[in-house]
Amino acid sequence: MRIDIGALENIYLLNLGITPRERVLVFTDKVSKKEGKLPREELERRAGLRRIGRAAARAGLGLAKEVIYREYAATGTHAVEPPKAVWEAAFGAECIAGLSARGLLREIIKKRVSEEGQGLAGRIIRKYSGDAVDAVIALSNYSTTHTIFRKLLTMLGARYASMPLFDYSMLSGPMSVDYRELKRLTAAVARAIRGAGWLEIASGNGTRLLFRTGGRRAWQDNGDYRKPGAAGNLPAGEVYLAPLEGTASGRLVLEWAPTRKLESPVTLVVRRGLVTEVLGTEPFADGLRRRIASCPECANIAELGIGTNSLAKRPDNILESEKILGTVHVALGDNHTFGGRVRAPFHQDFVFFSPTLKALDGGKKVKSVIMRKGKLV
Q1: Which of 363, 337, 345 is CA-nearest to residue 296?
Q2: Residue 35 phi/psi, 5° resolution?
Q3: CA nearest 349: which of 222, 230, 259, 216?
Q4: What distances in angstroms separate CA 324 from CA 53, 71, 76, 321, 370, one per listed residue?
Q5: What's the whole-model pTM score?
Q6: Which residue from 48, 84, 96, 233 puts its CA 20 to 30 A from 308's CA?
Q7: CA-based Rg of the chain, rounded to a whole angstrom?
Q8: What's the angle, vertex CA 345, arms to CA 342 and CA 349, rounded to 5?
Q9: CA 149, CA 138: separation in Å to the nearest integer?
Q10: Measured between alpha carbons, how far is 21 from 34 in angstroms, rounded to an integer?
Q11: Cα dihedral 153/73/223/48 (nearest 10)
Q12: What are residue 309's DSSP bridge partners?
């Protein structure tokens, strides 16, 4: 695989707006024992991701004042906090020593820290803000988007490009999108959602989900992370929000896992904002059942997202598939980093194709149809 360094330089210059005075952290992860035995194709993909990580670090030389590169053993699932060495690279060793001395880092990494503890951690981190990096390119296989690590960095004003499951083909695919048009379309979809009391999703495979928005913000992920504290995915292209906890109900019929088509559909039964049953004989269903049984917060209906990238095509990689124009996705687990109230060491998205999305008022009467069978209205 020959990597185009020029395409990776665009992440620094176009998406993050890095200047020669700034420091950038690039990190990725390597296969760990907790992941068990992986197929050869998956091992090859993961090795490719590490090569991209190292190339991304090289691409920043001469563009930034300093590029720090770290690799660590994979955490095994999305939304788990990165290890101490990555925290030290991001915030500085002295800052992390201060967090560790008060027992805060251990509690944060376990996602057991209280609101009071997180507030204290924020004050310590601000004290050492001069030691923190200015931007992050997160090329770990498992997402760090929905972590306290990311939240505290962007609180300081760092910019954050999160690229879990990244594949080299994305550089010439969805990342070559016309960003001006992407920004326009993403803003239009966010406006269409604004003011809805309820949102309803339905698709021809039997999926139907209804939930209250609670007036929560519809966030725009449009690839422009040049402002202090900006964060999002690359490839970019979605509008997303956190449904009001306890209000979602219906059924989600999954046909795709994050990186493959399921052998048979898996149905999630949703009541009062939680997945209460996982139906299906597909091995993927067993993994979801175990996850939810071990962590009640993992059953939370955490996110609704709407894809807005016209060049996103692949259904077999969740980083790209959730950006496909004309799709919606629903996530389980953690949503505390974008307006929700649930913290969990888990955040998993599922994409639904050719959906209909309706905005309803407070009395559940239809205000507008935002998408009909995969076409924006």
Answers
A1: 345
A2: -85, -10
A3: 259
A4: 24, 30, 26, 5, 16
A5: 0.94
A6: 48
A7: 20
A8: 80
A9: 12
A10: 39
A11: 160
A12: 324
Q: What confidence score (pLDDT) does residue 4 get?
A: 82
Contact indicator for 159, 229 with CB cutoff of 8 Å: yes
In the sheet where 366-372 sits, what is the strand order?
274-279, 260-271, 249-257, 208-212, 198-202, 356-360, 366-372, 375-376
In the predicted model, residues of the chain with pLDDT beneath 50 are none
Q: For strands 327-333 and 208-212, give the pairing.
A: unpaired
- Cite the DSSP H helix spans in the chain: 5-10, 40-59, 84-91, 93-101, 104-109, 115-127, 148-156, 179-193, 283-294, 318-321
What span, in angstroms and rounded, lies between the C-alpha atoms of 47 and 108? 29
Question: What DSSP designation does 313 have?
Answer: -
- Token pair 């004989």: residue: 281
247-279: per-residue pLDDT in tens? 999 999 999 999 999 999 999 999 999 999 999
Tell me whether residue 61 is exposed, middle or buried, using C-beta atoms within 10 angstroms of its C-beta: 0 to 12, 13 to 18, 19 or more: exposed
Longest dimension (CA), the chain: 57
Nearest to 59 by CA among 7, 117, 118: 7
d(CA 176, CA 157): 26
Instruction: Please say whether the beta carbons of 248 and 301 come within 8 A.
Output: yes
Angle at 22 between CA 16 and CA 26, to 5 degrees: 65
Name which of 360, 349, 325, 351 is nearest 200 in CA terms.
360
